[in-house]
Predict the 3D structure of the following.
Amino acid sequence: MLKRIFTYFVAASLLLALHGCSSSKHECRRVAVVISTLNNPWFVLLGESAKARAEELGYEAVIFDSQNNSSKETEHFDNILAAGYAAILFNPTDADGSVVNVRRAKQAGVPVFCMDREINARDVATCQILSDNFSGCVEIGKEFIRTVGREGKYAELLGLVGDNNTWNRSRGFHTVVDCYPGLQLVAQQSADFDRNTAMMVMESILQAHGDIVGVFCGNDAMAMGAYQAILATGKAEQIKVFGFDGEKDVLNAIKEGKIVATGMQSPVLMARTAAEFAHRYLSGDHDFPKKIPIAVHAVTRENIDQYLE
């Protein structure tokens, strides 16, 4: 009887070892990919690229959708830390609000690698891999001046107000545009990086300011929403639209002359780098820079073909 119990115990232990993580964080083969929202193709690409690279490196990877909700994000971190994941590839919902989740992970010995969006703390994430949003939008600002000119009224659609990307992009753009006093910003409103919201906000702006000559949108989803609203009013020739991200829809729209320019980010590069850094960390290399900027390039009709390829 005792022998049978011992045999059962050994078999159960082996089964747990095969299907779960070891108590050692470095032996655990599961990586969590936490994405701010999967309601945007750009973030879907970010999450799927991180997951694919982690799996190439031999890990089981699971994507968690925070739905742009900080409470949902906190719930994900609760479950991830309780389940004993080895590392977290993280796209935060809020620069300030997400800090507490990353800090909890650090205290639990789980490294966090931020992708695309940053948190406002330098001492908790293992590394933050971010687009150089400011410099990218300086280039968009220059293209705005070349296309729209130095005079006229314009609008700006901001992303999520709690996301540093929103303000870094806006500041980069205004670094250029504010040098021209003939350009007048008549409306600056948040559309939450969302296409449908942007369409509704743009419709409202056009009712009050039908004479604008341009609109700068903090991401491509908003640029497409703004363009839809502008097209419905018959002012697509008058109002020039500028985006940021490098989404396929907008690249095609640039090719067709519907949208003037976008900033080409590198979600695949950021995601793959985060997965590779996590692998290095779990292999014993803990020496990482706190922040790594990834260059952003302006895409216009003049160079669109190289990006579509």
Notes: Confidence is low (pLDDT under 50) at residues 1-20, 22-26. The chain is about 45% helix and 20% strand. The first strand starts at residue 30 and ends at 35. Residues 94 and 199 are 23 Å apart (CA to CA).
